[in-house]
Amino acid sequence: MKRISSLTICFVLFSMAFGYAQNLENQGAVAVENGLFVFGNGELPKNGYYLFERKSVSDKKFKEIAKVTVPLSMAEVEQRATAAANYFKHLLALQENDIKRVFNYLQTNKTDDSLYRADQLPIIAITAGTAFLDTEVEKDKTYQYRITLVRNGKEVFKKELKSIKNRVKTNLPTPKKFSKDIVNEAVFLEWVVEQQKDLTLFNVYRAFFGTQDFKKIVTKNGFSNDKEGLHLITLDTTTEKSSLYKYYIQPVDLYGNAGEISELITAGKLQTENLIPITSLHTEALENYQIKLSWKLNKSAIASNIQIWRSDNYDDGYEQIMNLPPNSSEFIDHIPQASENYYYYLKINGGTHQEFKSAKIAAMIKNNTNQLPAPKNIEGTPIAQGVEISWEYDEPYTNGFYVYRATASSEIFNLVSNLIPADGKNTFSYKDIDKNLKAGEMYQYLLQAENDAYTLGLFSDTVYVIPGIKPKIEAPQKLRTILRDAVVELYWQDMQIKNEYLLGYKVYKKVGKSGSFQLMPNDTLKAYLNYYNDNEVQAGQNYTYQVTALDLFGSESIVSISSTIAIPENFSPTISPSQPRVYKNSNGVTISWNQIASEDIKSIKIYRSVGNSKAILLKTISVKEESYTDASVKPDYLYYYKISFVNKNGKESNTSREGSIYY
Question: Looking at the structure, do residues 383 and 360 belong to the same domain, yes or no?
């Protein structure tokens, strides 16, 4: 409770903390989940209407698509609000008091200045007749709109909007889990984001632990700011006693577009409750060295998994043989070798690190020589979505097959398929496209057949496969160019945040308008170097740059958006380095600089001065180096550093601007 009591938290409508809404007087259109949301100029269309017209790139003329006016009754407000809410599932639908407020506002006002709320903006605008949702548009196609306000039969406003592509773009943060607690019998949850960006509200989703049945729930939401970022806080007062849940939240922007879901938080009111034990545990000896275990759980929803342990000795030697989902109620075990008796117990793991072991139970096997053989010729093939397993089997009366999977470093196999029907064929395949498969990780698979008497056969040989999944690599974003000290400096967004497999970048350059893009020297940079310097430029020339990203799987992204820079006619190419970056660490002071594109530069000279003293040459190093650490510094002194370039002819450039640091 220490964390909670240290924050000032008001559980009010989250979006209102950021202001009710943006003013809609700047006309425009926004791509949303179900079409293009187009709004007018802020005037309510009383005694008239808004005329919305549209044309695509291939159209020569605008075509009328809608006429919208102010609703005339409470019933019409409710009807419009209900219809609009169906298209904006991430926003709050208008309640009875909201509908009354909108209707009363429309009766007494001429503009929409104080009409909107940020968590209902598109719904209210469509209801009030100041906007229109165009659902008859194609994805990724570009359109242009024209809006006309007609009042008393006369045009009082008319404007053509900028063209817009029907593709949803969001600028929303991904919440990280932060804390959880129980507050007055309610579940307190907290996520954090570094920046708000376009976050306007967030929705909360909940599922019972051990299931994937997430549903949107109504909670009390709040927020708090501190040095760690913006804290997104929710209080769930609708939980059941002694139940465990999984939660995530999803950020939403002003127009109802949702971002990526947050990290999961597991929480529930289990502090005073023990894990519900196993009841009615039984064993049954089947033919073909099979033993059937069956059991019941009082509440499987609070269990994360059920483990089956087996030994041929009652007192010790137990090994885990299977890991099952929490809703399982039986398991058929194929005994690996002949023995009169085997012993079992079950272990349940709960989401709050609770653990329960059942009593040990014995089973005697039945000998039967009619045992199903194992599937043959098992092969694993990487595919784009995961792994495809193929095999052969020609035994009669076969009901189907089961596929089991484990990681390469584990001997615990988990069932990953439902029964795969035999259907009278001799060759079979199964595609494992589980979203939890990881690119670059090796997995092992084995199979087991089942006949029409529901008897399981021998396990197949194990096959090892690496999935063919390749992570999507995005093009570098926000490329910009700056001319400084005879050098074109390129900067772009650090793509390590979006791609954990990022290897580096390639930089391309085009001279003039008619030239072609050429790969720059020293192009394959390290993943953390999201900048580049080009000093091979001439006066009066235009240069265009593009950047691509490379990943560890050898894939190259599409090129970034181009950035063009014009070199002035009076440009004097006196090459001098940019100001170096300096920072201190446990080894001293490290001086670093940008990547160098010129092949004419041979070495770099580093100069240092202390206080007001004259700068002296500290070190001359190869141009291949990216940094240098000065280990000779002493505490409590102010140091200045600058660098210069030396070309292959031994000529030294001007020195850079100084970078300073107090050590």
Answer: no
Range of the domain at 185: 174-254+261-268
How many angstroms separate the CA atoms of 130 and 123, rounded? 10
Instruction: Examine residue 342 and state whether it is found in any structural domain, yes or no.
Output: yes
* 103, 124, 164, 407 from 109: Cα distances, Å: 10, 15, 31, 66
Site of tokens 């001429």: 110
Distance in angstroms (rounded) separating the CA atoms of residues 134 and 304: 45
List 157's β-bridge partners, or say none: 149
Q: Are residues 543 and 431 in the same domain?
A: no
Q: Are residues 333 and 192 in the same domain?
A: no
- Alpha-carbon span 213 to 595, nearest angstrom: 51
119 closest CA partner among 40, 262, 19:
19
Q: Is residue 403 part of a domain?
A: yes
Helix axes 96-108, 74-85, angle to 10 degrees: 120
Tokens of residue 351, six digits:
């989401």
Residue 56 lies in a domain: yes
The two beta strands, 616-622 and 35-39, are unpaired
Same domain membership, residue 38 and residue 110:
yes
- Give yes or no for residue 304 having a pLDDT over 80: no
pLDDT score of 119 more than 60: yes
Six token digits for residue 170: 């969001």
In this structure, the answer to whether residues 39 and 134 fall within a common structural domain is yes
Tokens for 56? 């695509």
Rg (CA), the chain: 34
Residue that finishes a domain, picked among 165, 190, 217: 165
Contact assessment for residue 318 and residue 344, using Cβ atoms and an 8 Å cutoff: no
Exposure string of 221-233, with b = 16+ CB inside 10 Å and e = fewer, is bbbbeeeebbbbb
Q: Which of 65, 51, 62, 63 is nearest to 156 (CA)?
A: 51
Residue 520 and residue 473 in contact, taking contact as beta carbons nearer than 8 Å: no
Q: From CA 132, how far away is CA 603, in angstroms rounded?
A: 63
In terms of Cβ atoms closer than 10 Å to its own Cβ (0-12, 13-18, 19+), residue 7 is middle
> What is residue 574's three-state secondary structure?
coil
**Neighbouring residues of 53: CB distance < 8 A, sequence distance ≥ 6:** 62, 63, 64, 65, 145, 146, 147, 148
3-class SS of residue 204: strand
Number of domains in the chain: 6
The CATH number of whichever domain residue 390 belongs to comes to: 2.60.40.10
Q: Which of 336, 364, 392 is the last residue of a domain?
A: 364
pLDDT grade for 648, boundaries at 50, 70 and 90? confident
CB 298 within 8 A of CB 276: yes
| Three-class DSSP category at 100 | helix
Asked whether residue 67 falls in the same domain as residue 90, the answer is yes
Kindly state the tokens that stand for 558.
Answer: 């599409």
pLDDT at 235: 93
Answer whether residue 22 shows pLDDT above 60.
no
The per-residue pLDDT for range 324-337, each reduced to its tens digit, is: 887 788 999 887 55
Q: For position 600, what pLDDT does the model report? A: 77
What whole-number distance in Å separates Cα of residue 584 and Cα of residue 592?
Answer: 11
Instruction: Write down the pTM of the prediction.
Output: 0.45
CA angle (621, 622, 626) in 5-degree steps? 90
d(CA 461, CA 618): 65
540 and 598 share a domain? no
Answer yes or no: are the C-beta atoms of 273 and 318 closer than 8 Å.
no
Tell whether 124 and 207 lie within a shared domain. Answer: no
138-181 pLDDT per residue, tens: 999 999 999 999 999 999 999 999 999 999 999 999 999 989 98
Residue 574 in any domain: the answer is: no
Quote the CA–CA distance of 203 and 221 in Å, as a whole number: 9
